[in-house]
Design brief:
seven-stranded mixed sheet; 16 strands; 29% helix; tt1808, chain A; 301 residues; 6 helices; alpha+beta
Length: 301
Amino acid sequence: MSHINKNGQDHDSEGLPLSVRRYDYKDKDQFAQILTIERERLLDSMRSSREISDIDTGSGRSEQEPTTEITEYIIFSIDPTTFNQDFLSFDTIPILSIRTSYNPDTKTLIVKMVTGEHTGVAFEVHKAIDRALLQMGLDGAINQYSAVDIDVNGRNKQADMGWGPRRPPRGCPKRPSVVLEVAVSETKKKLLQDVDLWLDPLRGNANVVIAIKLSRRRAIITIDSWIWDTANGKSTNSQHIEVSENENDEVKLSGGPLLIPFRLLFLRDPETPRETDVIIDNEWLQSIAERGWEMQFSNSR
């Protein structure tokens, strides 16, 4: 049985669309069945939206808005014991097509169904980082975290992707130091909640969050880099990049290139001159944006 916002908005789901469906978790089989149903619902909504976007209005753009609110999220109510048993036990096979966030205090499991736009953007970012590290001979020096459960001060969360040193300095845990979050249907407020969760030293303890926001209605993408402001105890935006494309296929980019400080990624100072900050140049930033647009507007490009 599903219900939409049964108890109204709560802190865990704040910033998600009101159409997010909620379920009471029963077992793995029920979970798999619901995933299948909800993914079909999501894909149908996306196909319908693309068909509307393909309507020719003379300028090549649609003036009609999709009537169906599209969301890739599902919420389950599940107790901590069952969650640990069904999702965190050693014999559990990770489901690569979803990302999860679990709060044991509220017994809330938020599931994000990964779509082509999430995957395309995430792996394009990974390729850009890997290329920059390859030039320093460090492409084998980092671990990639994808669909990996990270303990965030008692909560479990999976980032769209993360990177951290393969051999962290003594006393530093092996976990992502740089995290990527790709947002589509969730609001900026929800995205910033995830940023705070990852960067807070008492929770995620990451050093950098790359937050990417896409729109399903037009070809525009924002890429923000966030770090933790220790003095003020809050996240601070260290860089804002925007990439957009108009109806004449002209791409406009501002704020690049994207810089990831070496020390914040590897948890040590660079050995100059060979080791430098990781730089994702404007060409790669445009490639990241275009990969997302290709997945979103493939029928109209």
